[in-house]
Amino acid sequence: MEHIIAILPQKDLRNALFSEKAWKELEKLGRVTYEPDAERPPDDSRVRNLLADATICITSWGSPNLGESAMENADALKLVAHAAGSVKPIVSPTLWKRGVRVTSAAAAIALGVAETTLGWIIIAAKRGILATQVTRAGGWLKDMPFPPGDLPGKVIGIVGASHVGRNVIRLLNPFPVTVMVYDPYLSADDATALGVVKSELDDLMVRSDIVSLHAPKTEETHHMINARNLALLRDGATLINTARGALIDEPAFVEHLRKGKTWAILDVTDPEPPPPDHPFRSLPNVVLTPHFAGTVESGRSRIGDCVLEEIRRFIAGEPLRYEVRKEMLPRIG
Questions:
Q1: Which residues pair with 59 in a beta bridge?
Q2: Do residues 13 and 61 make contact, with C-beta atoms less than 8 angstroms apart?
Q3: Which of 55, 103, 219, 221 is buried deepest, with most CB atoms within 10 A?
Q4: Residue 31, SS3?
Q5: What is the tens place of the pLDDT at every residue in 6-30?
Q6: Does the model's pTM come out above 0.85?
Q7: Helical residues (DSSP H) of 52-183, grouped into ranges
Q8: What are phi and psi of 248, to 5 degrees?
Q9: Inter-axis angle of helices 128-136 and 106-125, to 10 degrees?
Q10: What is the pLDDT, as a whole number, of residue 1?
Q11: Which alpha helices (DSSP H) does the chain contain, by range?
C-alpha cells in the first residue's frame, strides 16, 4: 500500500521543520503532497483538497482544527503527526470518532526547553542576575546583598514531571543537587526511578533555592503559583517559567517581585507578548525572554526528525513513541 502524506504547514515552516535529508526520507515513506508556494496555513477548503486520499497528515503551528468541515474528504486518513507541541488546537470529536491516531512532537521540543532551563538554573545558582545588577550600578562582589553561589548542595524544585520536567531532571543528574518534584500524577515508584523527592507544592516552594515550572496549561494548573505560595519562597530564591504564563497569577507575582527578595526568569507570559509597559519588562530582578526556549535553530529540524520517525513507525506497524489519546487531553498541555 502506498501512503499519501499530506503536509499542511506553509512553505517557510515546512522548510524549517524538514532538512533536505529528512525530506528525502519522508519521500521514501510515501507520496508527499503539499502546497509548494503557500505563504500561510491552509483554510478548511484547502485542507479538504490536501487530505483527499491522504492516509497521513502532518500539522504544525497555525494548522486549522481538523473538524468536520476540514475532514470532509479525509476518509482514508489514519494518522495525524503534529509537528509542534500541544495537539489541542487541531484535534476534534470528528477526528477521534473516525479513529484517527494522533502523535505529537512535544518530546522533541522538550529537549531544547530543558537545555535552556538548565542554563538558567546554573545562572540562578550563581546569582548571575544580581551580579549583573550590581556591576551595572558601579558595584562589585562585595556589594552583592546575597552572596554568589553554585549548584552543589542546592535544592531544585521541579513543578511538573512532563517531557520537559523529566529532561531537566536528567540534565541535573551529574550535579550534586536535591531535586524535588511536585506532580499529582507522578507515582512514588516513578519518583524513585527518576531519583527525585516527590513533594507537595507548598513544601517544594518552602525548601527550593530554584523553582522551575514545567506543568501544562489546564484548568487544574491555572494560577497554581499565586500570592499564597509565592510568600513561601525563601529570600534569594529564583522562579523560572519556561512552561506557560497562565500557571502564574502575574499581578500577584509582580507585587511579590517588587519586594526585591526573589528573582524571576520568564520565557512565557500571559498574554504573549506582554504589553510594552508591563512590569516584567522593567523590574530589575526579572529576566524576560520572548518564548524562545525550545523552537529555534536546530530545535525545529529536531521536531521534523521526530515526526519522520513517528511516521516510519506507523507505517512499519511499530508502537508510536508519542501517541496522544483522547483521554489524555484533560491533563496535558
A1: 82
A2: yes
A3: 103
A4: strand
A5: 999 999 999 999 999 999 999 999 9
A6: yes
A7: 93-97, 106-125, 128-136, 163-172
A8: -110, 135
A9: 50
A10: 80
A11: 11-17, 20-29, 44-51, 93-97, 106-125, 128-136, 163-172, 188-194, 201-207, 227-230, 250-257, 298-316
Looking at the domain 108-288, which fold is it?
A: Rossmann fold (3.40.50)
CA angle 20, 26, 31 (to 5 degrees): 120
* Sole residue written with cell 526579572: 286
C-alpha cell at 287: 529576566
Q: What is the DSSP string of 206-222?
A: HH-SEEEE----STTTT
Best CATH choice for the domain 4-104+297-331 from the list 3.10.450.50, 3.40.50.720, 3.40.50.300, 2.130.10.10: 3.40.50.720
Nearest to 6 by CA among 72, 97, 76: 76
Smallest CA-to-CA distance from 114 within 179, 164, 169, 181 is with: 164
- Grid cell locating 147: 552572596
- Structural contact between residues 4 and 30, judged by C-beta atoms closer than 8 angstroms: yes
Neighbours of 332 (CB within 10 A): 18
**Which three three-digit cell numbers place residue 145?**
546583598
CA gap 10, 183 in Å, rounded: 37
What are 42-90's pLDDT values in tens digits? 999 999 999 999 999 999 999 999 999 999 999 999 999 999 999 999 9
**Annotated domain spans of the chain:** 4-104+297-331, 108-288
Cell of 222: 491555572
